Amino acid sequence: MLSIRNLVKVYPGPVAALQGINLDLQNGMFGLLGPNGAGKTTFMRVVAGLLEPTSGEVLLDGTDVIKTPQFLRSRLGYLPQDFGLYPHLTGEKMLAHLLRLKGVESPKGTMALARELLDKVNLSFASQRKVKTYSGGMRQRLGLAQAIAGDPRLIIVDEPTAGLDPEERVRFYYLLAELAEKRIVLLSTHIVEDVAVLCSRFAMINRGRIVAQTSPSEVRKHLEGNIYEASVSTAELESIRKSQMVTQAILVEGTNRVRIYQKGGTPPIGFIGVPPTLQDAYFVTLRSELPGITQQ
Ligand SMILES: Nc1ncnc2c1ncn2[C@@H]1O[C@H](COP(=O)(O)OP(=O)(O)OP(=O)(O)O)[C@@H](O)[C@H]1O
């Protein structure tokens, strides 16, 4: 289990990036969802032992990893937001280099281990290609290969799907889901779909605070009967934005399809009740913090 206790990080400024985070994570995929600047990267870096918190504890299976970083090092796989690459190396050589840096050893030798890991992330076909020719998704999978080396207890992935095309994103989802079967995977993202697809539990973070800790189905259930949808003109959309809480406004075949949250009362003319999505819940939670969901 990964337990986070009263984690605070104040940068010089001062900027209070984390304002007392408490979380308990079991095996499986846990999502940390929040807008840009919410504190996700700060949180991931503290938990990964790369940034010292101002105060608080990070316990992995009962051991305080801030006090004993060597305990964490051999049990952690980390895929940072900006994963540095040597563009002129082949995938295989790049990975072997990262494994040596990480100190991961194998009786079969580092190159053999690199090949095995490339196979696990479905990159064998490109093992002899230079990394500079890799697509965004292939780079992320290479990053994941180094993160899973040494069979870590905890894997931390920071916004891994940003910039991936839909096909690459789905491929990445399958890999992550498989990894989470036996370990703790902590995924930070601002993409609601990442959480909807992958996470049975997740937390929403905003301005350095956890504003909800829940599951996608639980949070959707809280909004049942309160989400309405209509197709409207651009002028109508402007006035709806002034009077309603709009959870989503998208263009569908050239028409504005707008969803609103309304608790009680009659919805505006033309709006019909629809099943809530996680996107609706995310918007409502960030704006008003839903009652009834675990909050801190
Ligand atoms: N080194 C730093 N010094 C001062 N302030 C910082 C530093 N790093 C981050 N911050 C601030 O701390 C807050 C949280 O930033 P953080 O990068 O953790 O958020 P995030 O949720 O990961 O955002 P993004 O998705 O944009 O990466 C922001 O207000 C940011 O400007």
TrEMBL record:
Superkingdom in the source lineage: Bacteria
Keywords, in A-Z order: ATP-binding, Nucleotide-binding, Transport
Residue span, ABC transporter domain: 2-232
Molecular-function GO terms, alphabetical: ATP binding; ATP hydrolysis activity
Family of the protein in this entry: Belongs to the ABC transporter superfamily.
Protein name in UniProt: ABC transporter ATP-binding protein
Source organism of this protein record: Telmatocola sphagniphila
